[in-house]
What does this fold into?
Amino acid sequence: MQLTRRILLKTGLALATLVAMPRILLAAAWPEQAFTSTAAAEALNGLFGTDQTTPSDKITLGVPTIAENGAVVPVEVSTTLDNVESISIVVAGNPRPLAASFELLGNVVPEISSRIKMGQTSDVMAVVKTDTGLFSTSKEVKVTIGGCGG
Amino acid sequence: MASKIKVKARITGDVADVQSLMMHPMETGSRKDPNTGELVSIHHITQLTFMLNGAVSLVANLSTAVSKNPYFRYKIRGAKAGDTLKVGWVDNLGQTDEVETVLK
It folds into this structure.
C-alpha cells in the first residue's frame, strides 16, 4: 500500500514538473558567458567567436544624442543588409555591455525597437550578423542620470 | 494568474507591426534597496520568444541592461488576420509568463 502511494506521489510530482515547464520551447540556451562578460570585446567573442566587425552604413541605429534618463533609453535598429541572422545591442560603458541579442527567424523584418538602461555616457553599438559576416555601427549617447541603480 | 504581457499588433499589407510590453522588475543586482541599504538580488528576463502560428519568429536573449518592464517592437512579413501570435519569456529565476493573441 505504502509503495503504491509513493509511486503515485512520484508520478504526480513528475507530471506537475512537466506541466510547469514553459510551454514555449526555447530555441537555444541563453548565452550566459556573453551576457555576463564585463567587456564589450569579450561579449562579442562569447556571442560570435570574434570581436571583429565591419562598419556598415546600411545599419540605422536610432538612439537619442542625449538621454535624460539612463534607465530608459529608446533604441531602434534597422538595416537594409540581406539575410540578417541576428541583431545585437552592445553598450560599451555598462557593467555588462551586451544588452540584448535578437535572433531573427522566419519572416522577421530587420527592424527592432526596445528600451535599454545605460549607466553612463558611452557608445552604443548595433551588431548585425548576416550570412556574410558581422557588421556594426555605433553612436555615442550622453547620459545625464545613470540607470544602473546609482 | 493573468499574464502580465501586453501585445498589440497592426497589420499593414502582409506585415504585422508587433508591439509588446511586459511587467518585470529587471533587477541588475547592483541596485540598493533605498529602505534597507542592501543590494537587490539580480532578477531579469533571459529569453523572450515570439511565435507566429506556432513557429518561432524572434528570439531575444536579454541581459539586465534592458529597461524595467521591457518594451519590444518588431515586424514580421507574411502575417494576416486570424493568425495567432504567442509571446513568452523565462527569467533567471526560472519564472515564466506567456500570452497568446489573435491578429486582427
About this structure: The mean pLDDT of chain B is 92.
